[in-house]
Amino acid sequence: MSQQNNSYGEWILKYRFLVLGLITALTMLGAAGAQFLYFDNDYRVFFGKENPQLKAFEKIQQTYTKIDNVNFAVDPISGKANAPEVLAAVEELTNIAWQLPYSIRVDSLSNYQHTEVEGDDLIVRDLYTDAMSIGADEQALVDSVSTTEPALAGKIHDKQHRATSVNATIQMPGKSADEVAIVAAAAREMAAEIEAKHNVKIRLGGVIFLNNAFLESSMLDMATLVPAMYLVILIVAYLLLRSIMATVLVLFVVVPSIMVAMGAGGWMGIGLTPPSASAPTIITTLAVADSIHLLVSMFNRMRAGHSQRDSLLYSIRVNGKPIFLTSLTTALGFLSMNFSDSPPFHDLGNITAIGVMAAWIYSIVLLPILISFVPLKSKATLAKLDDKMGKLGVYVAARYKSVLTVSVVISVGVLALIPLNEINDDFVKYFDESVQYRQDTDWISSNLTGANQVQFSLPAGESNGVSDPAFIEKVSDFTAWAHNESVVTHVQSISDTFKRLNRDLNAGDPAFYRVPDTRELAAQYLLLYELSLPFGLDLNNQLDISKSSTQVIVTIDDMTTNELRAWIARAEGYLANELNFNVTAVGPTVMFAYISERNIQSMLVGTLIAVFLISGVILIALRDVRLGIISLIPNLLPAALAFGLWGLLVGQVNMAVAVVAGMALGVVVDDSVHFLSKYQIARRELKLSAHDAVISAFNGVGTALVVTTVILTAGFAILAQSTFGVNSYMAMLTGIALVIALIADMTLLPALLIALDKDKKETSPAVGAPEIGTKEAPQNA
What is the DSSP letter of 766? Predict the structure, then answer.
């Protein structure tokens, strides 16, 4: 095996120009796919095609007017939202909002279709016009209607007059990827125009700006985090290697790895989302780790008196197998993301897996070739760290029983904290408080209405059945039940319209604010009302075409995912048990409420398969069942301990957390593979005892493990700065797991090896052990 490895290194250097040309051509071919990359900014992309909540939502979207919207929330700045100057701003904004691209409906206080009766005629008109010259009687009408009419109060207008809004319904054709950005840009221009003319502040919310926040978050991360990542890598690599040329060489592994990975994403037709857009940052950290192992081993060998060429060949030989194994196990960990119920994580896993394997190729092919062209010097920085690693190895080996005991006690204590974690997939809180969408939506939730809408489609059972008084009563009962829920801020219900029409067509008598007595009467009211409505303000957002079902939309305050699921279950239970409606709640809010649960269930299988495959790879590579089984403990433990610490420090987890276990497993295995590889060489080739082999492994690979962990942790710390909470949580949890993995591989793993991998005739341990690759080690090792 060693001859093959030596032959490989010699062959690469002999034909370096040919190989360099070939790998350059392949890199350009792979990177060419990047031209096909695009940003997918539809929040629905987070849900798989077979997701039941998505299917139910798409069905209701086909039945009624879509709820995709731009919500212009008007902040009066000073005074009340019912003041004439604010009403004038609303009136002007309502008129120009029809000009938004793909706008099909605009609802506001000014164009609310107020009903009143003159003689035998039903008059349906805008609530007010020409706000600046509004009279006292009309002002009183606006004040009354805006705070009492169910269609307005708590949704379009705040009952305390703190805010009002103009809601534009958008129906995009779905023909190009930039439709959301076009609508958002136009809405911002309109908001700026109104702010310039009137003393108001416009807050922008709604589904369009939710989608746009996903887009802008992806672009911001790629524009800020990737450059920051390179800067950190350059600084950390230089501080550790103390070699400008070696640091530059690292970039020649990182950059093409990213180019090929992102190009492959383009060839696969992947649309970038915040998770998949974080792939370059993750690939950078992983690609650097491969390079560092090769360089550190080479510098150690050079410091022992060997030439650069001999040290390079030696480093290729001793690191070839572990770098391949760590790359393969890392790729398997990321590929486990394909079991996620959320497609963006499939994309992240696939792009990163390709990048990791590309980094392996560049580390063992391109990096050695480039090293052969430039002179490098080993600096004392690594020597000092090597010395500390050797002392740490001696200390751990001498006290392995105490180390093992302390490790077990701490691990049990931290694992007990896992239940403190609570699932919370509030899509608004996916975005950092610095994001404008988050700021505006939080303000809207506090001053106007909730950000979460839950839709219920209630079937009447027959064409025109919505006019049946018995059916309307059921809808009214559910509407009343929802209004009595403390978390509900608004209920849009056709039953309120029927009651209002019945009252107004009976001389405005409040006693008639009830469901019409007969089906014929209700149908007549509905027909008369619909014929009086202007274009664009029909009832298609509440009734299906055949009038055989109606949509009730319940707007609720912000709450945790668990609370939301409990409320949904309560609402569905009331509809089924009290009103005999076996319906399911739908909507973006509902979809996000269940995505974590579905993700955890799907990733459980993916993580188990990843554990099986990664463990199998390690067992086959080590050819030692005992070592393979021992390695499972420090490999599986870090992710679990990370969740325990997270429960203590944060306690809130989102859909990204489900994929962390599989991903982190693939990454944390790297340290143990390198440690076990050096340990095994010491046992088999240097014939050392378990005790001395542990010390030898510390001397041989301890520095590289610390260096790579520092770089990996720095990389994930950069990603943790993402304004997108899913990426941030994923990065922080993985970073915690990496630090724990390093601690476990330098304490628990060596203690387990000494305790469980002893030979029957093993004698008392020596004080120290030779370092792999130094003068004391055989040259043909």
Answer: P
